[in-house]
Amino acid sequence: MNFNGIDFDTYLKNYPNEEGFFGKYGGAYISEDLKKAMEEITEAYFTICKSSKFISELRRIRREFQGRPTPISYLERLSGKLGNVQLYVKREDLNHTGAHKLNHCMGEALLSKYMGKKKVIAETGAGQHGVALATAAAYFGLECDIYMGAVDIKKQAPNVARMKILGANVIEVTEGLATLKEAVDAAFKAYANEYKDAIYCIGSVLGPHPFPMMVRDFQSVVGIEAREQFVGMTGELPDAVVACVGGGSNAMGIFSGFLNDPVDIYGVEPLGRGPALGDHAASLKYGTEGIMHGFNSIMLKDENGEPAPVYSVASGLDYPSSGPEHAFLHDLGRVKYDVISDDETIDAFFELSRLEGIIPAIESAHAVAYGIKLAKEMGKGSILINLSGRGDKDMDYIIEHYGIR
Ligand SMILES: *Cc1c(COP(=O)(O)O)cnc(C)c1O
What we know:
This protein is α/β, with parallel strands linked by helices. The protein has 16 helices and 16 strands. Strands 5-6-16-11-12-15 form a six-stranded mixed β-sheet, sandwiched between helices. The protein binds pyridoxal-5'-phosphate (PLP).
C-alpha cells in the first residue's frame, strides 16, 4: 500500500534507515563512547535477529514462559451498549507479568546473553519497566541494576519489592528532584562505565538507535498475532486499531501489523487535567521538534527548551516525548494521534471492569476510552483496541483517588 509517497509493503524493512532515522526523527545524539556501544548492539542485533537459533529460542520463550499468543476478546456487552460497532481487545494484560513490556525485555535480555554480557541496566519511573526487566534477567541468570529516583522508590514500594524479590539491585538516585529524569541520567552514566560487560535496556521505542527499531521489532509480535487472530475470528480486518502512547512501544507493536492495510490507526495520548503545559503529557499533539535522551522527536519543552514537566493519571504515559517513529507517522498522517483526559479514562476503567470482567491498567483505559468515543462517531464497523496491561498495579491509586464506583 502506498500512503503519501511511502511504500508500506516494504516499510518495516526500510525504516529506520542505517543511521536510525525515520525521516528526520530518531538518530543517535550521544557521546562517542556510547555511540560505540550502540554500534556494537546494532551489529549484534542485525546478525542475531536473522539467526534461526535466536528466533526459535525467542519463539519458545514466548510460548512456554510468557504464555503467548495472548487472545483477542470480543467485548460483547460493551459493544451491545454502544450500538452497531463491534469492539475487540488484544489481551496483553494476559502476557506474563501483566503487560506488554515483557515482550521487549525478553528480547533485550536474550540479545544480552548472545552478546556475552553479564548484566542489564535500566532506569524505571513507576517501576513497571524495572519489574519486567528484572523478570527477564532472572530468567536468563543476568545481573540487573535498576536506577530509580528516591521519590519514586517511596511511592512505588510494591514494585520495588518485586524487583528485589526477582534478584535485581535497585539503586537509589538522590540528585535533583530524585525522579525519572535523574534516574535516566544516572543509568546512562553507569552504562558509559560498564558497557563492556553490560547492556542498557530501554523501556520503550525511545532513546538512540537501534532501540526504537529493536523495541518495535520485539513488540511486533503483538501486531502479527492480532492481525491473524482478528481475520480468523471475523473473516476481515478491523476498521480501526487503537492504542495508548506513552513512549509508544505497545502502540508500535500493534500498529506494525496493520500499517500496510486499509485500516484507520489511532494513537491516544494522555490529556491529563487539560491542555495547559504541565497538566498533560500529549507530546505529539502539543509538542515541537527537539532532541532529548539521545534522539530527535516531537517533545514538550519549557521556556528554556528543556523537557517540560508532564502529568497523567497513568504513570506509564507521563513522558515529555514519544518515540521517533510516532513523530514520523504523525507528520505523514498514517496514524492519527488524539487525546483522552483523566476523567474519560477513569470512566472507561470502571465501564470495562463492570461490563466485561477485565480490569485494565490506567494506561490501557485511555485506549478503551478512545475506542468508546470512536464507536459513537463511527456508528458501525469494528475497532480493535490494544489492552496493554492489567489494572492490579493501580488498585491502591484508584481506591484512594476515586473510590469504588
Ligand atoms: C508502560 C506502559 C505503557 C506505556 O508504554 P508504551 O511504551 O507507550 O507502550 C502502556 N501500558 C502499560 C500497561 C504500561 O505498563
